[in-house]
């Protein structure tokens, strides 16, 4: 992709402190306009084809309800059989990788930006990112938030309204703010 050659883009996806470049700003504005257009399309196939065309890659059976929002799209990779309910938002300044057979409830948010703690640096509008990785067979409940740098293993269920501040291994149900393990989630157990 053309944006891959932009030094600010490389700093952004590498988790380095960066400032938005003219190329990043143009990409964000172009994508924003297309997202607004696609979210207005009632036909499921047409809407989903449009949204999928804006992402780095998607697998088979990609389905998102309106509104589906993201920052750039080029940093989002989604596996097979993905469903996102209404109002899902992905701030993909950093890399976001979602495995196969994942479902997102309404108003789920994935946030990769990390704003500086030092107010002097924060005033410059510089930020960095931390990637989010979600394994296969995950279910993220409505209004849950996944924060920067989180990795969820396979078969993780995140309870509705949870705030996931750190990573979790395979086969757990996590709930709360901050999210903690409620119980194991062994398949066929």
TrEMBL record:
Q: Which residues form the Maltose/galactoside acetyltransferase domain?
A: 9-60
Q: Name one GO molecular function term.
A: acyltransferase activity
Please give the InterPro entries that the UniProt record associates with this protein: Hexapep (IPR001451), Hexapeptide_acetyltransf (IPR051159), Mac_dom (IPR024688), Trimer_LpxA-like_sf (IPR011004)
Q: Does the keyword Acyltransferase apply?
A: yes
- Which keywords label this protein? Acyltransferase, Transferase
Entry-linked Pfam families: Hexapep, Mac
**What SUPFAM superfamilies does this protein map onto?**
Trimeric LpxA-like enzymes (SSF51161)
Transmembrane feature ranges: none
Q: What is its EC number?
A: 2.3.1.-
What the record says about family reads: Belongs to the transferase hexapeptide repeat family.
Q: Fetch the PANTHER family from UniProt.
A: ACETYLTRANSFERASE C18B11.09C-RELATED, SIALIC ACID SYNTHASE-RELATED
**What is this protein called in UniProt?**
Sugar O-acetyltransferase
What is the protein's species of origin?
A: Lactiplantibacillus daoliensis
